[in-house]
Amino acid sequence: MKTKFLLIFLVALACLAPIALGQDGDDGAAAAPVAGPSQLEEFFTNAGKIGLLIIALSVVALTLIIKEVLAMRKDQLAPPEIIDEVEALFEANEFQEAIELCETEPSYFTNVVAAGLPKLNASFDAMEKSLEEMVEEETIKLHARLSWLSLIAGVAPMLGLMGTVNGMIGAFDIIAASGGAAKPDEMAGAISGALITTLLGLIVAVPVTAAFVFLRNRVVTYSLEIAAVVEDLFERFRPRS
Predict the structure, then answer these.
(1) Are 138 and 115 in contact (CB under 8 A)?
(2) Span 224-228, mean pLDDT?
(3) What is the pTM (predicted TM-score) of this model?
(4) From residue 30, how far is each of 33, 67, 72, 117 by CA, in Å?
(5) What is the Cα Rg of the chain in Å?
(6) From the CB of residue 38, how many other CB atoms can be counted at a distance below 10 Å?
(7) CA angle centred on 219, ends 111 and 64, rounded to 5°
């Protein structure tokens, strides 16, 4: 639980970091009237469209992370009360009722159990194969949901690099237009935009990559644990030599 909230806090902090960069760092000084745009406005102006796109990606990533952290919990993938009900139905040999329960309470666990129950009249090998295939299918589904985080983690720094190249092109255009006599303040906006987009891309990519790895490892761990529970549940049908 602590890990979950720590992860969400770090990602939120990383996504809000660009806004913090636009604030005045001297809190103790008296605020003087500013005629021109504020630092925050300059930050977003220099970031350009690419920078705003990266910020939008950070919002999407944060939403996905919170959603998946809450969804990929063991009590969601394999609710303990459902496991107890299925075990009780197995003990009572009420397999049709177990199938109906699995159909009305869909989850990773019940989907796997529902794949094996129709094979009761077949060989144990056929039943075991159905269980293994469904475990693999459910695990692939979970990994597919996480692939969006992997995509954002890869695209964000590439967009930052694109913004950097675009900003440097703008700076060289200014130099060319001035005949090589461009003043530093004339180039500052383009160079600032180039650096800001690089920073934004990294700010998004690093925590999103960490969240992706964290959730991917959670999927692997829970998949193995649920598979072990199902295997133990169906072990009673294994032929005794």
Answers:
(1) no
(2) 94
(3) 0.75
(4) 10, 42, 48, 73
(5) 27
(6) 12
(7) 100
